[in-house]
Amino acid sequence: MFTQNIFKMQRIKTSEANKVAVQTLSGKGKYNFKDNRTIGQIALAYSVQLNKIFDIEIDYPIKDNKGFEYPDSLLGEMFHTSNDMVYKAVLNHHYGKNLSQDEFTKLVKLHIDHGLEIFQKDILDNSKGKNAHIDYLLKLIKNGLSVMSNVTSIYSTKIERDEASYNGLIEVTIGTDAKSCEEVKLRINDENYFDSQHFAVAGMNGSGKTELVKDILNQITQQTKHELKFIFFDYKGEGQSDKLKTFLSATKAEFIDIQSTPLSFNPLINISFTNERERVRSIKTFRDKLGAIDKRIGVKQKNSLELAIQRAFENESKSGNHPTIVSVYEELLAYYEESKMKPDTMTAIMKDLSDVVFSSEYDKNFKLIDRSLYVNLPTSLPESARKASVFLMLNYILNHFIDCTNVVPDENRIKPIRYIIVIDEAHAYLKEKNMAAVLEELLRMIRSKGVIVMMLSQGVEEYKQKDFDFSSQIKIPIFLNVQNKELKVAKSFLGTPKSEGKMTQCLQNLESGKGVINFDETKLIDIRQFWRDGR
Description:
Elements: E1 12-13, H1 16-25, H2 36-49, H3 56-59, E2 69-70, E3 77-78, E4 81-82, H4 84-95, H5 101-125, H6 132-148, E5 171-177, E6 183-187, E7 199-202, H7 209-223, E8 229-234, H8 242-251, E9 254-257, H9 276-291, H10 299-315, H11 325-338, H12 345-357, E10 373-376, H13 383-402, E11 419-423, H14 427-430, H15 433-446, E12 451-457, E13 476-480, H16 487-494, H17 500-508, E14 514-518, E15 522-527, H18 530-533
Parallel strand pairs: 7-12, 7-13, 8-10, 8-11, 9-10, 11-12
Antiparallel strand pairs: 1-2, 3-4, 5-6, 5-15, 13-14, 14-15
């Protein structure tokens, strides 16, 4: 005798923007899906296939429920038994935990909305005929089958790796109170003060933001006796000036100019060689993220890159060595020639990466995260190549730490820290939807691994994007001299102050070399700068 499972998904409504997509794709719409649940199921599956991860506490409250209402039978049934538990098992695996009924329902809604947003763009907005959607959806099904072809279990057997961390308190001085002249200190990894260690510094050129962050890094390296390492991405490509030499010497950081000094690490090294399922999944993720570098890169170019990476792995199957960016580029050119395809944006990016950035033989013993690095990205390189270089390094770092155990605060709530990532000129990524998605994943996935991300941007507006509010992940914001000093702009970045009058007064006195913070209370501070304070 079988007992009916009490687990049941609740009814959900799509966002108002996606209501049109559902109506157009189903019922009496243009594409005439007979059962409007079908398109919802495909949207959900495709969103998960893209490895999209949501944070319910952040994402769900900003999603509206004014669109199409799906019944609680949305996910269908088989042999008179609801498929809800099957989908729940998939999402449990996707999120790495046993979801509650409420969490499951909310995540189903978020993934369906995400999938529908993509369909709206790829099918409805760019439709090339009545049956264009059939070819498009068949491609999605084919991709899904390729991922599942060798699956023997929905559970991962990956063993998390432990990684060394700095376990003491990290306290830095960021300046002095402009009124009292007292030092302003931050207990960065004390979770009694900050439950996230991510920084954001907003300030236009000349505001002192880069020198402030250099000073913070110098204090951290001195305090931890150089145990804690960092990587600093200089998107402006300042070069190795005398001031920079002083910083490099103080922090014991290596300087790498990606145009003159090819990187000796292999960004493909953390794609699995032995686990075919993981390899297929990782290659697709790599393809999609690299494809986000330039919006001119379409599905055809991404699929070509995926095939080139697969071929490169097949070629190295006997040797056991990972393919390199150079060998992938060679396979890509061969495929383009076979297919009579003309060179395009994808081949141009891969050429720059192959000929310049990763042109040397990689060193198997070179680990990106076991030293402090200052990575110079000269403007003489094409912007897409600079972005791709940063992506490849960030992707390597992300994958390295994702495989590590979570860090656990001690009894005093001091959180162990493993690594620091600094992204200068972050607005170059935040303003582009595809690249912003890479940063979004980085901020969300890496915080529990003891990694700090510091983002520097010329303004505040870039942090609040339509699809994601980056300031929601940043608990240590520092507001320097920016062009737009309106109170509402500052509040969106720093948080609501105890006194709007005091924040307004601080903003009025804001100039180069000064900053506004709003932790316990709003303060105008004279910021520390490495050129002056870090010697």
